[in-house]
Amino acid sequence: xxxxxxxxxxxxxxxxxxxxxxxxxxxxxxxxxxxxxxxxxxxxxxxxxxxxxxxxxxxxxxxxxxxxxxxxxxxxxxxxxxxxxxxxxxxxxxxxxxxxxxxxxxxxxxxxxxxxxxxxxxxxxxxxxxxxxxxxxxxxxxxxxxxxxxxxxxxxxxxxxxxxxxxxxxxxxxxxxxxxxxxxxxxxxxxxxxxxxxxxxxxxxxxxxxxxxxxxxxxxxxxxxxxxxxxxxxxxxxxxxxxxxxxxxxxxxxxxxxxxxxxxxxxxxxxxxxxxxxxxxxxxxxxxxxxxxxxxxxxxxxxxxxxxxxxxxxxxxxxxxxxxxxxxxxxxxxxxxxxxxxxxxxxxxxxxxxxxxxxxxxxxxxxxxxxxxxxxxxxxxxxxxxxxxxxxxxxxxxxxxxxxxxxxxxxxxxxxxxxxxxxxxxxxxxxxxxxxxxxxxx
Amino acid sequence: xxxxxxxxxxxxxxxxxxxxxxxxxxxxxxxxxxxxxxxxxxxxxxxxxxxxxxxxxxxxxxxxxxxxxxxxxxxxxxxxxxxxxxxxxxxxxxxxxxxxxxxxxxxxxxxxxxxxxxxxxxxxxxxxxxxxxxxxxxxxxxxxxxxxxxxxxxxxxxxxxxxxxxxxx
Lengths: 442, 169
Prior knowledge:
The structure holds 2 protein chains of 2 kinds. Chain A is α+β, with helices and mostly antiparallel strands. Chain A is 56% helix and 14% strand.
């Protein structure tokens, strides 16, 4: 903060606190009235007993405010600390500020303030480690670290398309529970591997480090930035997940035929090269397409093939709406990340396009989702109960309105990013339900 | 006016301020003698003033370790809703307690919750995941040495002074 920026803010405070060092070396503070005059500040003289406040070039003037919030605590936190010279003479003491620092939560949200303070936390932990002769790290239970590092709640993006493929196979009277379980495990493993690999490469590229406004939907898991998990541990988790996925994939290929191999290989490659060099697909504006393919047709058709041994048009059509909606999860999550992504050279679609075009892209994709479902029913590819999925149109509208209203505000966007995740989940589950209803009534 | 009072007998008006205060301004002496002030929530345990600081905002902790001399200002009639209101400055020696950053500070939690009830909600496991380093915290324990307080908050008049140096703790 610059002094010139601080001075106009001072009338927002009721009083100032003058701080100097006393003769014993202790800080000595006293509240006082103030007014800003000609780039300086005039203070009402204060009495401090035997501690006489003298002329000093190194005084502090502090302005602090909160508003009590009964039952909660307080809000409206703001403070400014000015450093400068004090001349305590006459009826109005003169303070000339040279430096300023401060924080106003209305200008800089508390979560963002915390993100910006990460280097200080690392310095402190480094100092403690040096003092104690062993590494001091933040603590978190292993289960929670895994939950955070793998971004477990986003597994719905895998569960929905796999269930759709299984539902489509069931509609064709083909279903093996064992193979279904293996398919789901393979899909989960590749998804978790992707999430962890994404964090590793976004940390190495600097994208996550430069992001001061992560939300629960964007900016990665932050476990590396917080020092909760090491890069090596993350690499082990990613490699283990990919190894499990590949192993399960090979078992399924042996069980169902080589036709599955191409889908499996495509899935692994898209997942890994999503953020990994040299392809870095997401850096080239291809992230959305990759996610739509990976969590749409590849998962759904793969799950269908495992059950039936062949591909078909119906699971392909079913996969398009969930592919589009999962793409929109990424697309909307990139809105708060766009500043950091741009700095890191991650040229996502949202980075490349202006706000209006981004919002138009969202509307067009949602519209395409529902058009595909309706056309699928009209053309008799999908059974009519899948029209149940249209019930989520209201949620899509609410999400769009939220994105439009809070495009520039990462933390106000959060509830709508949450609705966007639900839009994918509910639409996908309603499609599954529609297929099950059709299967039972067929 | 100068009196000698044991810390357990912190002047009653100042105890009232400490118990009511949602904010106090803690000043530490930093590198090169530079003063640095941060707003904090103070707690009074009858012997010491306690505060907790996240490692995210730990520069003050480093400064205290290098120079324990601090002062605490209780000055905002809104943030310190005591009745009757007065203003006080407490000078003292601070100690950083950071052996267990993850759980050591939890002993201050009941005092913290009494002033900021939302803390209990924010400590729920899923909430805590959002800002995990905010919950890695040290305790700042200030042993008061000298107290200046201004009845009615009028600092243009001479303060009452309690010198606590040498008193039994």
